[in-house]
Amino acid sequence: MPSVAFPPMAFGFLEKVALPPVRRVKLAQKGGESIADVAGTVRAAVLASARLKALPKGSEIAIALGSRGISKIPVIGRAIVDAVRELGLSPFIVPAMGSHGGGTAEGQVDVLKKLGLTEDALGAPIRATMDVVDLGATPQGARCKFDANAAKASGIIVVNRVKSHTTFDREIESGLVKMVAVGLGKAEGARSVHRTGPTAFLDVLPALAEVALNAAPIALGIALVENAKKQLVAIEGVAPEDFFESDKRLLKLAKSFIARLPFGRMDALVVEQIGKDISGAGMDYAVMGRADLRSIPNPPEPFAARVTVLGLSEATGGNGLGIGLADFTTIDVVDKIDLQQIYMNSLTSTLVEKSRIPIVLRNDLDALRATVSTSWSSDDLSTRLCFIRSTLHLEEILISEALLSEVEASGRASAISEPFDLRFSPEGRLLSRAYASDEA
Predict the structure, then answer these.
(1) What residues are paired with 156 via a beta bridge?
(2) Domain interval for residue 430
(3) pLDDT tens track for 258-285
(4) Neighbours of 382 (CB within 10 A)
């Protein structure tokens, strides 16, 4: 795994920084009604597909699964496989994740494995390749590339979560359309989308999806929506001609469930984990307030003067994309980052800012002291400081006393502890965590 070594530098003045006491706070997020029978709902959607039912028995069906940590995705994948076989068809899996996994077939299989998507779990073979076929050009001149194994199938089932994009707003963001244009386009297709920068998502991505939908044997989409608790609240089978309208409609529903902090401005935000399973950009800008793209302004709120990252999720597998959005991190974090993966993502997406390495300090304690001392607060103890597990997990947070009145005034949060001092191991590792169950 390509990485870089950072020296454990010490700065004596940081030892004088006082970290403010924190309280544990419970947040109320919009829940909705979760789907009780996920496998049954998915099975019904597959069995209802007119295109699949019209195919000759024994026809091969490619099931496109991506790199996101979708709730119950092994259950969903297995239910699709079983339903396809029930129709008398022959299923196989293709990784549909653009350039993720370091842009290699083996790396993409490994990404699926980390999500619990193995051949044994799914009951079907995985056929991974970075080879693509060319399906034609868009009006803008972009070439539509498409997974070679999927293109040879008699039918394709596209599976994806519909959600907001991790960088900016538009009518269609992450969903079935993006999976067709980017995920199934592999690394070459992803480069076609990103080549001209963020505006490509408005013009090039939809056009590439149109070409693929007209030329590839796409038979069905399985569209998924989660709430803030990572529960599935919508599962729909979508005919390919309805991908665009379905994405628009379900995106509005998905955005109504986005978890948010109960305040707009912070002096400092500490993120315990980032990862591709959490957000495509490691951290969701709608929660932490930074996209940091030169061509697109950050939203005025939420705003954090300083952002610190203290870890990577296990499922991200060394893909620390998004670390460039932080101001501080630790040697432990950068030691776990696979530079090949984050550089591949940035070179493909052209969003190079997200792979830059911030100031790297020797441990959590030093990183937090640096965060507080540079956060522009009037003094250490009055710092408006917030700790979150990740931008996806916001049911519990830790806040300093300076944020308490605003949290209580929001009407959707309440303190569930008295103030306490942050705890650290002798090596300077943070032991206090946003979720009490995560504490060492």
Answers:
(1) 62, 218
(2) 12-29+259-438
(3) 878 988 899 999 999 999 888 878 898 8
(4) 13
